[in-house]
Amino acid sequence: MIWALAVAIFATVAAGVYLALARDLLRCVIGVSLIGAAANLVVFAAGRVGTMAPPVIPEGETVLAAAVNPLPQALVLTAIVIGFALTCFSLVLVLALKSRTGVADSERLRFAEPPPAADGKPAPDEER
Amino acid sequence: MALLVTSPLLVPLATSLLTLLSADRPRLQRALSLAGAFLLLGCTLALLAQVEANGTARVAFGGWQAPFGIEFAADRLGASMALITAIMGAATLVFQLSDADPAPESPTLLPLVHALLAGVGAAFLTADLFNLYVWFEVMLIAALGLLAHGAAPRHLDATLKYFVLNAFGTLLLLMSIAYLYGATGHLNFGALEAAGQAADPLRLLPFVVALAVAFLIKAGAFPVYAWLPASYHTLPAPLAALFAALLTKVGVYAVLRLLGDIFVSTPGLLFEALGWIAVATMVFGVLGAAWHWDMRRILAFHIISQIGYMLLGIALASREGTVGAVFYIIHHIIVKANLFLIAAIVFRLAGSYDLRRIGGLYKPRPWLGVLFLIPALSLVGIPPLSGFWAKFIVLREALLQGHYVWAAAALLVGFLTLYSMMKIWFEAFWKKHPDAGWQPPAEARLAPAFAATVALALLTVAIGLWPEPLAQFAQQAAESMGRAP
Fold first, then answer.
1. HSE of B447 in the Cβ direction (CA atoms, 13 Å)?
2. B99 has a chain A CB within 8 A of its CB
3. CA distance A29 to chain B (A)
């Protein structure tokens, strides 16, 4: 089972990196959120799949037969929430960029860092 | 006591909520924000005094003691970092009251600033690796909101680049935390330290390296600093100062905590590699600055360059190196924020951030020229300013350990820093203004700006003239961390 999880993580990271390296901005942020999903799976896998002793047992109680380590699940829940918020934010950001500037290509995304002027010196910042 | 330890988180978080609730009443919101900033200053001062008197203060949340519960631990390093965070928050919020390139007023501005302060303060005090990740994310989200605040194409562009490159950092951070947890079964710093000493250091090495790389992305180290010069110069002055002062330093602090406290038994090869990364960070940062003519962009590249010195202190892997790194971080936060703020005053008076379009400020405003020179020469490391002592401690240790190449690179970068600072000074103050009819605007509201910058400059001078208390404090901070002398 852990091997299946490992393969799934590998495939998700590979797909995420491939998308994140794309010049299209939407693909790029979707790639980042895919890597985030893979990171969540890694946290999940860190607790091992299947039964093991939970880290904390109340005094006098015994371990259940089919208990799993609950801590990574709590951690992964936190990470999912954060990742979801960031994904939403990044999607809105890309849409705002696209609708305001018409640019969806990272190569042409030079608003903050304009390319050098014709004489090779840094271009003066016109907006300020 | 428990409240005091958590106050660097609770005070800004409460202020953030209160300013959000008072968003439709701008005057009340501003008053609440300033009150929150100065309350934070008072709380962190009290916390530092408490830690000085009684040693490390610990709080475990929800009654679950370490290593099971989440713990906040304020040792000397963490408490001093929380104090400097509060100083920066107060200084930039006072500066925001002036009309020197302030952040555009908006209902969500102040809540986001305080959320950022909460994230930074909590990151300095937490003693739990996953909790640290959460605070990094809080900082990231608040920083994204502030970056996108202007909503012009340049702001959105900067936000996107900042987001994508930083997201790689946080995701790597999350993955390596998961690996470390899988390998040791712990997230608490103290428990990880014990597990690291018990385990074969080579077994944990890949995970420690991955974690260090994630922190280095956050710190803006070579070659993963591209997000910093792509975004910082689009920020209005108080926010740029706040970002420049705090965000990269949280990354450096995390590297210091990881390699100088928790996993000190990491093989020396990692520290050797970190030393070369530090040298490359210094050199590439300062070269990037030399090309630019926009003051904000020059200063942004100098952040990277200075990060190299702090990493060098950590890479020396000795107690004196740690002392140097702590001293350097504290000195640098004050100086760097002040440079951004003074550049904004220059912008207000001379009309542009671009050095080719301004000049002649020395004649009407000679004291501004002096005020700029204090942090600028401190950044270079000219005695008797604070930067001299910071560099002195790091370089002496490097030479004592026989790392002559690293020390030589650090000295060379010092000269190039001097070149950049003199470029700003001569272009903005000494040469004639390109527009012959230029007069500094008479009605500029600069009193709050001068209050903030003069206070920070006085701190720099005070550290420079009396380095002994801070050096001693850094020494004690290093002693309470994991490294043997």
1. 1
2. no
3. 7
